[in-house]
Amino acid sequence: MLELVILAVVAFVFIGIMIYDRLTPARPMTRESAQQGFVPGASARWIGAAVVSAVMVVLGLMELADPISGSEAGRYGKLIATLKDIFGQYTVAALLFAMGAATGYWAYRFRQERNQSS
User: Fold this and answer.
1) Tens digit of each residue's pLDDT (9 = 90 or more) over 50-98
2) 3-class SS at 118?
3) How far is CA 102 from the centre of its chain?
4) Which residues of 69-89 are buried (b: 16+ CB within 10 A; e: fewer)?
5) Is the pTM of this model over 0.90?
């Protein structure tokens, strides 16, 4: 149930971001930006980074609610087991939150770049 609530909140936040982005008035094109030309994908780059950030945070919350238990197997099993021995059972959640925060900052910087170039 917690996962559904978290996913619903994230969905509403992103719908709000998209509506806000659509409703903001377009800035007139300057001569400088016209000379630079069109950069493909620059307008959607910050949205993609924000989505990845939100997914990382949601996965971190899911891991926080129900931590991985038992023996870790697979490619990074030894690393995860060592980190859990050092930092405790919430290591994976903390790593996901850290990656989500870093990606969120990256999205914020992309958004700033886009606003400055317009």
Assistant:
1) 889 999 998 888 888 888 776 677 787 888 788 788 878 888 888 889 9
2) coil
3) 8
4) eeebeeeeeeebeebbeeeee
5) no
Q: Return the structure tokens found at 63.
A: 């891991």
Cα 56 to the chain's mean position, in Å?
Answer: 6
Residues 64, 90: Cα–Cα separation, whole Å: 6
Contact 60, 93 (CB under 8 A): yes
Torsion of the alpha carbons at 93, 96, 101 and 103, rounded to the nearest 10: -170
Single-letter amino acid code for the residue at 56: M
67 burial level (CB within 10 Å; 0-12, 13-18, 19+): middle
Alpha-carbon distance of 77 to 38, in angstroms, equals 45
